[in-house]
């Protein structure tokens, strides 16, 4: 069981809301979010209700202001706990929509898609095992997108407005 606490003000001040499960709409609990404390579990927090908008991956720890979780603003409207996956990870990425074009299989982290595979546009993927984070830029920087097990026929299905992926990281206990 996970626990995340949202605070309206920086440095864990102001009104707070404690959450222990996914919540598709947090706006009735607080108007803005400037700090977060993750007591347990790993979470994805989203800028808008319904798990859309900017996404931010958070592990156990303190985030005294939104820049610490690489936030673009103080808006957090939904959250989801990510179940831990302790066995192997496996994903196939595709250069084109609908599982077309060149394919590559991943079983570990990839700090630079372009260096490793010589392309950085992913238009579809099949995450067979484990949870993954797609990052907009190499070295795990930029916008983040949670990819849970399943088939994604187009990049917008994992929440992106672009096929650009710079790096990919597994969500694992040993990460």
UniProtKB/TrEMBL annotation:
Crystallins are the dominant structural components of the vertebrate eye lens. The keyword Signal does not apply. Gene3D superfamilies: Crystallins. It comes from Cyclopterus lumpus. This is Beta/gamma crystallin 'Greek key' domain-containing protein. SMART domains: XTALbg. GO terms for molecular function: structural constituent of eye lens. Belongs to the beta/gamma-crystallin family. Transmembrane segments: none annotated. GO terms for biological process: lens development in camera-type eye; visual perception. It comes from the Eukaryota. Coiled coil: none annotated.
